[in-house]
Each structure stands twice: as structure tokens, then as C-alpha cells.
Amino acid sequence: MPKLTRNLKPEEFGEYYFLKEELKDFCRSEGLKVSGSKQELENRIIHYLSTGEELNEPVVRQKSNASSSEINLDSRLGENFKCSEDKRAFFENEIGKGFKFKVRFQKWLKANPDKTYRDAVDAYHEIQGSNQKTEIGKQFQYNQYIRDFFEDNEGKSLDDAIRCWKHKKSLKGHNRYEKSDLEVLK
């Protein structure tokens, strides 16, 4: 796998898997913005590698939602819902210590700004009771790989899956699980 430097061609960058921390380190070293999702960092780096210039990104100001002291079951979720510690504390208090901001619930929260926290608690229980698999976002290649590995390899360990993943991500090309990845375990 090549080292991420300003001399890397954008096409070659796209052929390899880099950890988010590696992307952030590169952005820091080149004076680029370091915040954002992994996909935003990748887009920023591709633009920089292509043009040598920083990507002009609009500044987004977030309106804060109700603070934890204002949150109650009848509070509205509001636009641009953020899964913050005060909201986690609220949901843990209402749902229990096993509460987690899982992807399907986060998507529900963001898609329903006019709903109340009471509606959110009900939705959380409904989602938890469902056996439907969560769709894994494109940027979470590791998670998708591990899920696919276990669907195809009952009885294998997480260590086996991680060994295969580490090998796969070091190769040029896609990072999707393939049966041939098991060769590294022999």
C-alpha cells in the first residue's frame, strides 16, 4: 500500500483503503480542514491531490436543539438532530442503561424533526424489536466486510475476520469480502 503523500495520484488514492485517522493526519500536514466524516475527508483529499488547492466548503452553522435541562418527553426533536451526551443521558434515563444510538435509530431521529422525544422512545423500542438488518453506509467498509465474513463463515472467530480484513485492505482494489480472502488464514 502506498504512503499517503501529496505526490499520490487521485486515481491511486481511490484504489486503496485508508483509516480516517490517516486521512486526518494527511489533512493536518497539508493545512487542510480536518473535521467531517470519512467521506468528506476523502473528497477533500481527492480535490487537493487533483488541483493542489483546498476545497472550498460552505461553513455550516448548527442551531442547537434543547439543552438537557429543557429536554422532556414532549420536547420536539428539531432540525439537525445531534446524538450528544445530554441526549444520550436523556434516552438512558427513559430507556435504560442498554440504550445505544444505533444507525437505524439515528436515521429515524434525523428524518423526524417534528416528532417528540416520546415518539422517539416508542420508535426506539419498535426498532429494537425488529429483526431487520441495518444497512451499512458505504463509508463503513470494515463493518460491512466483517458482517459479510461472518455470514459466509459460521464458526470462524473475530480474529480470523480481522486478519482477512487487514490483508484485504492492503491490496489494490475493492474491500468487499470474497471467499478467496480466507487464503490468508492458511
From TrEMBL:
<dbReference type="InterPro" id="IPR003034">
    <property type="entry name" value="SAP_dom"/>
</dbReference>
<protein>
    <recommendedName>
        <fullName>SAP domain-containing protein</fullName>
    </recommendedName>
</protein>
<dbReference type="InterPro" id="IPR036361">
    <property type="entry name" value="SAP_dom_sf"/>
</dbReference>
<feature type="domain" description="SAP">
    <location>
        <begin position="15"/>
        <end position="49"/>
    </location>
</feature>
<dbReference type="Pfam" id="PF20026">
    <property type="entry name" value="DUF6434"/>
</dbReference>
<dbReference type="InterPro" id="IPR045492">
    <property type="entry name" value="DUF6434"/>
</dbReference>
<dbReference type="Pfam" id="PF18953">
    <property type="entry name" value="SAP_new25"/>
</dbReference>
